[in-house]
Design goal:
The complex is a heterotrimer of chains A (304), B (312) and C (661).
Chain A lengths: L16 E4 L1 H20 L2 H25 L3 E7 L2 E2 L3 E9 L6 E7 L6 E5 L5 E8 L4 E3 L4 E5 L6 E7 L5 E4 L20 E3 L6 E6 L11 H5 L5 E8 L4 E4 L8 H17 L4 E4 L4 E5 L2 H13 L6
Parallel strand pairs in A: 3-11, 15-16
Antiparallel strand pairs in A: 1-10, 2-4, 4-7, 5-6, 5-9, 8-11, 9-10, 12-14, 13-14, 16-17
Helix pairs in contact in A: 1-2, 4-5
Chain B lengths: L1 H18 L4 H12 L4 E4 L6 H11 L4 E5 L6 H5 E6 L4 E6 L6 E5 L6 H13 L1 E4 L2 E4 L5 E6 L12 H4 L4 E3 L6 H10 L2 H6 L7 H11 L6 H16 L3 E3 L3 H17 L7 H12 L4 E2 L8 H11 L7
Parallel strand pairs in B: 1-8, 1-9, 2-5, 5-8
Antiparallel strand pairs in B: 3-4, 6-7, 10-11
Helix pairs in contact in B: 1-2, 1-3, 2-11, 10-11, 11-12, 12-13
Chain C lengths: L13 H15 L8 H18 L8 H19 L5 H16 L5 H18 L6 H22 L8 H24 L23 E2 L3 H5 L5 E7 L10 E7 L1 E2 L4 E2 L11 E3 L4 E7 L6 E2 L1 E2 L9 E3 L5 E3 L7 E7 L3 E3 L5 H8 L7 H14 L3 H15 L1 E2 L10 H9 L1 E2 L1 H14 L4 E8 L2 E3 L4 E5 L3 E9 L3 E5 L1 H5 L1 H5 L2 H5 L13 H4 L3 H22 L1 H13 L4 H24 L7 H15 L10 H11 L1 H19 L5 H19 L1
Parallel strand pairs in C: 14-15
Antiparallel strand pairs in C: 1-5, 2-7, 2-18, 3-9, 3-16, 4-5, 6-13, 7-12, 8-11, 10-11, 16-19, 17-18, 19-20
Helix pairs in contact in C: 1-2, 1-4, 1-5, 1-6, 2-4, 3-4, 4-5, 5-6, 6-7, 7-20, 10-11, 11-13, 18-19, 21-24, 22-23, 23-24
The chains are: A alpha+beta (304), B alpha/beta (312), C alpha+beta (661).
Chain lengths: 304, 312, 661
């Protein structure tokens, strides 16, 4: 489908902060010791070395700052997950400064940081995980970019907004069995399935058909090569109905429905979903599953 | 003159919108494909309105149409036609197959054997049919809409990449939007609607429009952009193979038609971007490490990597 | 927002480990000459072990083994340095620490400790050796340490060795001018507490007594004694007498300083022009300083003795620098007290009978005229004496043997004999030791005096004229005074016998000599302006800044600092600029729009960008719309003429002015 990328970051990179690290303070201590050494021995070459290192520290401020300046979140996309898991976000980090940016660390509070280099690749994609608690849209906080490169004496950091969201499905819970006669009106359809064992009819064999299904007995009678067709007759379309358990609370019901939707999808069965305000007719396939899960995730939430 | 012709084609599109509800984009892409003189592949589930689209296109452009439902036991002759010995005249008489039409709907093309597939694809490529040593020309506007069902894999023969390249565009229709579907349900049977569609254009007009499309100006900056896009599919990360020169030509041709359809005298990058996914989507493949990336995702990646305004 | 910093990857890259090794070796290498052998062995062993660990053949040593090594090394240090908390012991301790730490660097923190200690060791190297070459070498060593530091912080998967080196040099380069500014301006205050310097160095140069053979022994060495920098022309070669000691007591064989009364310096009557110059004296482990004959006053922290030589308050254990003014033409002590007269005519009551007899014969001939007597002595020397570096040994009656038997000698023989004969004639006389001549460096305008320039001459007191310089060597070998000792003695076997490989022996003319002079000048400039900068700073700052005020100091620090940092920031932070003016305008415009929160994405044409902006800010979109249209016209429409360019340019200018307002 043609659509313009939605998650464009409108924000240019924010304010950059910079402060010495613990290693930086250690370096200051080293400078003080060197200065004492120089003063006491009246040695101009140790003075020179001390000043060189002090000047290097000043230069390092600029380098650490410039290592972060110009880096921005080009775009972000969120991948769906189940409540309680970590939602994966694909963040694309890029710069158009023409410089190398090394060891940029991305993190959210509470998430495991990831460190990347913008050297050979620019922009570069990283996957950052954000723990989730509730179903619905998960909108991440601003991502923190920080770096101590090149000398580790200073740490510069900034925050950039993430223009993306991830869909959080309800956590699947296996708790109930599915009501088998959950209000069905339609006719059972005939579905050709390889795994079924009800013999249906014979068909002329065509290249490409599975040789396992060749009806050898028919062939032996000299009636040509035929393949056996199997079919399973499915009596009922399965309906996942929100109103099946009136006594349970909403979130619990959604979790049960989620579990069953996943299970039925795995078994490649045909199922529909009935929510108080929406109905998804029975179908199968990835697309259907996705639609159903999304409906479950967003049920009762203000659609933004 | 060109303007009025474009207007007429736009009217035809609006007519089609009456039948194919809520799919304005896909309808225009299909028309663009027709204007570019290429063939269209629709990948979708059954019942999404592929047949309706084909019939509606045929009647709006005043084209003769026929439909082949492909099955696994179909032979090339079932499509191309057979020579039958005619006793009274004492000679072989050629009975043309369904391929001898102006708009051919090849339904579920992946259901038939590669041999039959290639018979059709060769006819599409060359615009003629060679049977029993005799070559017969196909009608002049010859437009194939092939469909294949992406989900059912059992007992099918997916089109190989080399054959996919023969389709100018690949689109999918997708489910209608809720309101479009409601309208559809309220209105009832679509067949009756289709029969009432008047012909807005004639095959001659279509040929004229096809020629006009290729007159649309493409500046050197635009050609650079097309070239950079194509280049990226060959060199960029995430692609296992890129767009062929034929694909590049197809992209430019479609962009021209799209621009013409929107009454522009020159192609702008937006035209290229609009037709990029349908034209290029089936000609590229993600590299191993990007497995699972759909072509739509790859194309949006491609768009974001190639700066439109980069000079040179 | 406080957050727990988790570092999943804290390991060092393999190239970082190699850089640690290189950095450690680089800073320890200069100390190899004096470090105890077992420390070197330990270091080499640790490096080898680390390489084995690096290549995966060994694993990291067990903690008990490391503890054992630490204890053993500590015991070794105690034994080697005899519990002496000297500088050497400290550096050895740091070196051992470095070596042992090498065994356990695994994470970033270990590497940082190692590198910081390495930087400290690098600084201590200068306490032992300060030559220009060493400074250049240490620059390279520090570069290696910084490269190692960069390699610690880079991606642990990076393997290229050169990458951290390149970045380190790019960072050190702008640090150099900043370092110079700090070096110039940082006020040098004296030591905060007294420190023990190395006291083991030998005393060199002249001693406070002179026996036959003492001075000629000095010609075996080309060691630097001092350098004298002249602002104007240097004195003529015949006037280059550098006064160090006046010896007035004679015991029949050797001359000593003798007892000096506590009286002030002898009265000096300057005749003619004076010369002002600066002496840079090498450490001699003696107290006396050098001055051109004869100094007007003593420099600070030194005293003028009665016979106008200079004595420092402390031993000269470091290279020192002082300014002096001397008068080449003078009258010294026209009045002599009875006690002084007695002291300067004192001789042992016995010994050297033949010499005394010869003097009394000459006295009779000259009827007591001092000048005639001196002429006779000099004529005697001139007639049949040989000036040689390797005179024969002299016995008990050294003057007799020299005057009548051997008849060959070096300056101390002639001076000693002359002073003896004058005193025998009851004329006050004394021996002066010091240096004579010097090598003139034309490029930097200074004289270099080496130990082989050591000399001894006589001062004779003449009624009405005071003390007069009398150099008997000039009578025997006038070329000794006119030429440098180096040129004069080059053929003699004893000359520079202690420095057989000295460049001085090989290079005496041509461009090689020029090169040597330049190298020497460079070294001297290095010593004067860098190593002894604390002596110069005050004057220099006064000259350059026109008075030292805190305000001026701050300004002098900030202005160059801001210039360098501004240049660096511009280099680092500028965006690549397109060459085409249209592109440049467009980029500026888009940057301006970006500051308002709208960043164009790569796949957006201007039209689509404007459409997106319009959804949020219609006013801004309205400003940009003409630009987008003109851009499309220029780049994609069929006829692209010059007017289209102008239209786009105009549209962009207009948009820019509207954006500003």
């Amino acid at each position: 489908m043609i659509s313009w990328p939605a998650g464009l970051s409108l924000q240019r990179e924010g304010k950059i902060y910079i402060l010495p690290t613990a290693a930086g303070w250690g370096f200051v201590l080293l400078l003080v010791l060197l200065l004492l050494l120089s003063i006491n021995f009246e040695n101009n070459l140790t003075f020179a070395l001390t000043f060189l290192l002090a000047a290097l520290m000043v230069v390092a401020i600029l380098y650490t700052y410039s290592n972060l300046a110009g880096v921005r979140l080009v775009r972000a996309t969120g991948q769906p997950c189940f409540a309680g898991e970590a939602a994966g976000f694909t963040l694309q980090l890029g710069s158009d400064t023409g410089r190398e940016h090394q060891q940029i660390q991305l993190s959210w509070p509470g998430s495991l940081p990831i460190t990347v280099d913008l050297v050979e690749q620019n922009p570069v994609q990283v996957e950052l995980a954000l723990p989730t608690q509730r179903r619905g849209w998960c909108t991440p906080p601003r991502v923190k970019l920080q770096t101590v490169f090149p000398l580790g004496l200073f740490r510069s950091w900034c925050y950039q907004p993430v223009m993306a969201r991830a869909l959080v499905y309800p956590a699947p819970l296996n708790g109930v069995s599915l009501p088998s006669t959950a209000g069905n009106t339609g006719q059972g359809g005939l579905v050709v399935q390889s795994g079924s064992d009800d013999f249906s009819d014979l068909k002329r064999f065509q290249p490409g058909m599975s040789p396992q299904h060749i009806a050898w007995k028919v062939y032996a009678r000299g009636q040509g090569l035929h393949a056996k067709q199997y079919a399973a007759r499915q009596d009922l379309d399965i309906w996942l109905d929100f109103s099946a358990w009136p006594e349970a609370e909403t979130e619990l019901r959604l979790s049960w429905l989620c579990y069953w939707a996943l299970k039925l999808s795995r078994e490649d069965r045909c199922y529909g979903l009935r929510l108080p305000d929406q109905t998804w007719p029975p179908a199968r396939g990835d697309y259907h599953r996705q639609q159903v899960l999304q409906a479950l995730a967003l049920y009762g939430q203000v659609n933004s | 003159m060109a303007d009025t012709l474009a207007k007429q084609v736009q009217q035809a599109c609006e007519q089609l919108d009456q039948v194919i509800l809520g799919k304005a984009q896909q309808v225009r892409l299909a028309v663009t494909c027709l204007l570019s003189g290429g063939h269209l592949l629709i990948e979708d589930l059954p019942g999404m309105g592929k047949t309706t689209l084909a019939h509606a296109l045929a009647s709006v452009f005043g084209l003769a149409d026929s439909r082949i439902q492909f099955t696994s036991d179909m032979l090339p002759a079932d499509i191309l036609g057979v020579s039958v010995f005619d006793a009274p005249s004492g000679a072989f008489v050629f009975h043309p197959g369904p391929v001898f039409t102006q708009l051919l709907l090849a339904d579920e093309i992946n259901r038939t054997t590669p041999k039959t597939q290639s018979a059709l694809l060769e006819a599409m490529e060359e615009g003629q049919v060679t049977q029993d040593g005799e070559t017969r020309q196909l009608p002049d506007p010859f437009f194939v809409i092939a469909t294949q069902n992406p989900l059912t894999q059992f007992g099918t023969f997916p089109l190989p990449e080399s054959q996919l390249d023969r389709f100018l565009m690949r689109i999918n229709l997708g489910y209608p939007s809720p309101e479009a579907e409601r309208t559809l349900l309220m209105r009832g049977d679509t067949l009756s609607r289709r029969q009432r569609l008047p012909a807005v254009l004639s095959p001659e007009k279509l040929r004229e429009a096809q020629q006009a499309c290729q007159q649309v100006h493409a500046s050197s900056d635009l050609i650079h952009y097309v070239q950079r896009l194509v280049q990226y599919t060959r060199e960029g990360d995430g692609f296992s193979y890129g767009v062929s020169p034929r694909g590049a030509l197809a992209l430019l041709r479609c962009a021209r038609s799209w621009a013409w359809l929107h009454e522009r005298q020159h192609v702008v990058p937006e035209d290229v971007q609009r037709v990029l996914e349908p034209v290029v989507g089936h000609r590229i493949r993600a590299a191993e490490d990007m497995a699972g990336h759909t072509s739509a995702r790859l194309v949006s990646e491609l768009l974001s990597r190639v700066d439109v305004m980069a000079s040179g | 927002m406080k957050q727990v910093s988790v570092k999943p990857v804290d390991k060092l890259s393999r190239s970082a480990v190699l850089w640690q090794l290189i950095a450690c070796v680089a800073v320890v290498l200069p100390n190899v000459v004096w470090l105890p052998a077992w420390v070197l062995l330990l270091g080499a062993g640790c490096i080898a072990a680390r390489v084995m660990i690096h290549t995966g053949r060994w694993s990291f040593p067990h903690w008990s083994l490391r503890l054992l090594l630490v204890v053993a090394a500590a015991a070794g240090l105690l034994v080697s340095f005899n519990r002496d908390a000297s500088l050497n012991a400290m550096v050895a301790l740091l070196t051992v620490g470095l070596a042992l730490k090498l065994l356990e660097i695994y994470r970033r923190r270990d590497a940082l400790v190692l590198l910081y200690v390495a930087l400290f060791v690098a600084a201590t190297v200068f306490l032992f050796e300060q030559s220009l070459l060493m400074a250049v070498y240490m620059c390279v060593a520090v570069l290696a340490v910084i490269a190692a530091l960069v390699s610690v912080w880079q991606d642990p998967l990076r393997e290229e060795m050169l990458r951290p080196l390149k970045l380190a040099s790019r960072m050190l380069l702008p640090a150099l001018p900043l370092m110079l500014v700090l070096f110039f301006l940082f006020p040098r205050i004296g030591p905060l507490w007294s420190v023990e310097l190395d006291r083991s160095a030998a005393r060199t140069g002249l001693s406070d007594s002179m026996a036959p053979g003492d001075i000629s022994r000095l010609t075996r060495s080309d060691e630097l004694a001092f350098r004298a920098v002249f602002e104007g022309e240097p004195p003529a070669p015949s006037l280059r007498y550098w006064r160090v000691l006046v010896l007035s007591a004679f015991d029949g064989r050797s001359w000593t300083v003798g007892s000096s009364s506590a009286r002030g310096a002898e009265v000096l009557d300057v005749q003619g022009e004076t010369l002002t110059y600066e002496i840079v004296q090498e450490p001699s482990r003696q107290r006396w300083l050098y001055a051109l004959d004869v100094p007007l006053a003593a420099p600070p922290q030194a005293q003028l003795t009665m016979p106008r030589t200079l004595v420092s308050a402390n031993e000269v254990s470091q290279r020192i620098q002082y300014s002096l003014t001397s008068a080449p033409a003078y009258q010294l002590a026209t009045q002599l007290s009875q006690a002084e007269r007695r002291a300067y005519t004192q001789l042992p009551s016995r010994g050297n009978p033949r010499s005394r007899e010869l003097v009394s014969t000459w006295l009779n001939e000259s009827q007591g005229d001092v000048v005639t007597l001196i002429d006779q002595i000099l004529a005697y020397f001139h007639a049949s004496f040989v000036y040689t570096l390797e005179p024969m040994a002299l016995g008990e009656h050294s003057v007799d043997e020299f005057l009548f038997d051997t008849r060959q000698g070096f300056c101390e023989h002639f001076a000693s004999a002359t002073a003896f004969m004058l005193r025998a004639a009851d004329i006050p006389a004394r021996v002066v030791t010091g240096y004579q001549g010097g090598e003139w460096n034309t490029t930097q305008r200074y004289l270099t005096l080496r130990q082989y320039d050591a000399h001894a001459w006589v001062e004779v007191w003449i009624e009405g004229q005071g003390w007069q310089r009398l150099d008997p060597t000039a009578a025997v070998a006038p070329e000794r005074i006119e030429m440098s000792a180096d040129q004069l003695f080059s053929g003699q076997a004893g000359f520079l016998a202690d420095s057989p490989l000295s460049a001085r022996r090989l290079i005496r003319q041509g461009w090689l000599l020029q090169a040597r002079m330049r190298y020497d000048a460079l070294n001297f400039a290095w010593q004067r302006w860098v190593l002894n900068y604390h002596h110069q700073q005050q004057n220099l700052l006064q000259d350059w800044l026109g008075g030292i005020t805190p305000w001026k100091m701050v300004l002098a620090l900030l202005v160059p600092g801001a210039l360098v940092l501004g240049w660096l920031a511009w280099r680092l932070l500028r965006w690549p600029q397109p060459q085409d003016p249209l592109q440049r305008h467009l980029q500026r415009l888009l940057q301006r729009v970006a500051r308002q929160g709208f960043q164009r994405q790569p796949d957006e044409t201007l039209n689509r960008f404007v459409a997106r902006v319009a959804a949020h800010s219609p006013a801004l979109a309205e400003i940009l719309q003409p630009v987008a249209e003109a851009y499309e016209q220029l780049h994609y429409a069929p006829s692209t003429d010059a007017q289209a360019r102008q239209r786009l340019l105009a549209a962009m200018r207009q948009a820019e002015t509207r954006l500003k307002s």
